[in-house]
Specification:
Layout: E1 5-10, H1 14-27, E2 30-36, H2 39-49, E3 53-56, H3 65-75, E4 80-85, H4 90-98, E5 103-106, H5 111-122, E6 127-128, H6 130-142, H7 155-165, H8 170-177, H9 181-195, H10 200-209
Parallel strand pairs: 1-2, 1-3, 3-4, 4-5, 5-6
Helix pairs in contact: 2-3, 4-6, 7-10, 8-9, 9-10
Domain Response regulatory: 6-122
GO molecular function: DNA binding
Protein name: DNA-binding response regulator
């Protein structure tokens, strides 16, 4: 029997939290281990429960979802965070991703889109709602950081990073570049260190902003 994906839900609206729990547990394959109504409690429960996924609203008392994502990355590094919010501006999206969020979805997303995002993030990839992705990529194309020397990364590292920016997981990258998954993982660790980031999403953002790889296309 497949181990369920464990979920922490953090939102200050009780009805929304309960609705999410019912949706996920009715779907099957998910187990909600905690529900909280503020950012401080989200961090505390992430530390205690070590869930696979934390679903975080941005506008919560105590700590914002963005700051909670940042702290959860420290207290429970294996927990992946999904920001689920009504905030549509691209700077908020970027701020959340830079804080360590692995996905950003709008609260009006379809249930199927939310389920898919959780599954994608659990596999170690990143997810953005189509509209949010379009805004982020538009901002990246306009540029938000000065370019840096391409010598920062080796040609192979740039190849790997370009595929990360396209949303490929380690297995897909390994197949496309004729490498082992272990080699891809090791190279990614080196890339993260060079770029001063903690995860794939942050690496892709920094790489595109600094002109190290071209921005991906939204389909």
């Amino acid at each position: 029997m497949q181990t369920p994906i464990t979920i922490l839900i953090a939102d200050d609206h009780t009805i929304f939290r309960q609705g999410l729990r019912e949706l996920l547990e009715r779907k099957g394959g998910f187990h909600v281990v905690a529900e909280v109504s503020d950012g401080l409690a989200a961090v505390a429960q992430a530390r205690e429960q070590r869930p696979h996924i934390a679903l975080l609203d941005i506008s919560m008392p105590g700590l914002t979802g963005i700051e909670a994502a940042r702290q959860i990355a420290n207290v429970s590094p294996d927990t992946r965070t999904v920001v689920l919010t009504m905030h549509r501006d691209e700077r908020t999206v970027l701020e959340a991703l830079r804080a360590g969020a692995n996905a950003y979805l709008l609260k009006d997303a379809d249930a199927s889109e939310l389920i898919e995002a959780i599954q994608v993030v659990h596999r170690g990839e990143a997810a953005l709602a189509g509209s949010a992705a379009a805004r982020v990529l538009d901002m990246l194309r306009r540029g938000d950081s000065a370019p840096v020397s391409a010598d920062l990364l080796t040609p192979r590292e740039r190849d790997i990073l370009a595929l990360v920016a396209q949303g490929d997981d380690n297995r897909a990258i390994a197949l496309k570049l004729s490498l082992s998954e272990k080699t891809v993982g090791n190279r990614l660790s080196e890339i993260f260190q060079k770029l001063g980031v903690n995860n794939r999403t942050q690496a892709a953002i920094v790489a595109v902003q600094r002109g190290l790889v071209p921005p991906p296309e939204v389909i």
